[in-house]
Amino acid sequence: MTSTTGAPWQARAVDDDVLAPLDGVDGVAWSAAVADAATGRLLAVRHPDVVLPTASIGKLLLLHEAAARMVDGRLDPEARLARTDDDAVADSGLWQHLRLSALPAEDLALLVASVSDNLAANVLLRHIGLDAVAEVPGRLGVPTVRLLDRVRDVRTPDDPPHLSQGSALDLVRLAGMLAADDAPEWALLRQWLSTGVDLSMVAAGLGLDPLAHVDGDRGLRVINKTGTDAGVRADVGIVGAGRRVVAYAVLASWTPQGPGDPARDDVLGAMREVGRRLRELGA
């Protein structure tokens, strides 16, 4: 693998219909991009510069900083980090259901990568610091991608309005680095994210086993991170077959319409069709 620092990520996309399923969903703001991870050539875009809320996608920045610190010795992977009452949060994750009140730092990172564990993310973020994570986008050249806060059950007017935000153009570039950068922190991040179990969005169209695809399935390798919130669905990752790797970022934002929220089904259906087309693209 080689670095993609010089890749032409700002080049205009070729005319490709891989993202066409997004066009038929009314009332949804999309930001989406698909690119060849090796060259940075954009293959398809829809409003790629638009910045949207991305829910747990911002945890990628936390994981990258954690990996960098483990590689250079600032964070001991075996250091046991304890949860506190202030870290507690519901929804995604396993640690809230486990008896152990402290876990090794690398186990927390793995929980965040695999099941988007909110409690593990809050403990890791408290240890590393939000200010340190805020410096990551500048170093990586993805300025619109930001982790704005810790995970909260309820957001008040005094809190940031979203957990994270970003544009598809910057996130597909981040996915390209995930695919092709040789630095050891990226290798560690790939290792963690390869265990991800949420294949409910774009990756659902690939038909992989969500619990057993770490080493590939059906001739494909998928590494991704998703984000879910009311009115938000986001999926960023890479799909590889043989030597070719395609990077993708598909972000959706809309005003939710109550518990039934028909828009959610439309959004998920469109994202899954994008995944099917990625497979047909030869990813």
Task: Describe the structure concisely.
The protein is of the alpha+beta class. The protein has 8 helices and 10 strands.
Written description of the protein model:
The chain is α+β, with helices and mostly antiparallel strands. The protein has one domain: Beta-lactamase (3-Layer(aba) Sandwich). The protein is 31% helix and 20% strand. It contains eight helices and ten strands. A five-stranded antiparallel β-sheet has the order 2-1-10-9-8, sandwiched between helices. Strands 3-7-6 form a three-stranded antiparallel β-sheet. It has a two-stranded antiparallel ribbon with strand order 4-5. β8 and β9 form a beta hairpin. α2 packs across α3. The N terminus is likely disordered.
What key phrases describe this protein's structure?
single chain; alpha+beta; Beta-lactamase; 5-stranded antiparallel β-sheet; 3-stranded antiparallel β-sheet
> What does the largest sheet look like?
5 strands, antiparallel
Based on CA atoms alone, the radius of gyration comes out at 18 Å
Number of helical stretches of at least 4 residues: 8
CATH superfamily: DD-peptidase/beta-lactamase superfamily
Structural class by secondary-structure content: alpha+beta
Report the helical percentage.
25-40%
CATH architecture classification:
3-Layer(aba) Sandwich
State the CATH topology. Answer: Beta-lactamase
User: How many angstroms separate the termini?
Assistant: 17 Å
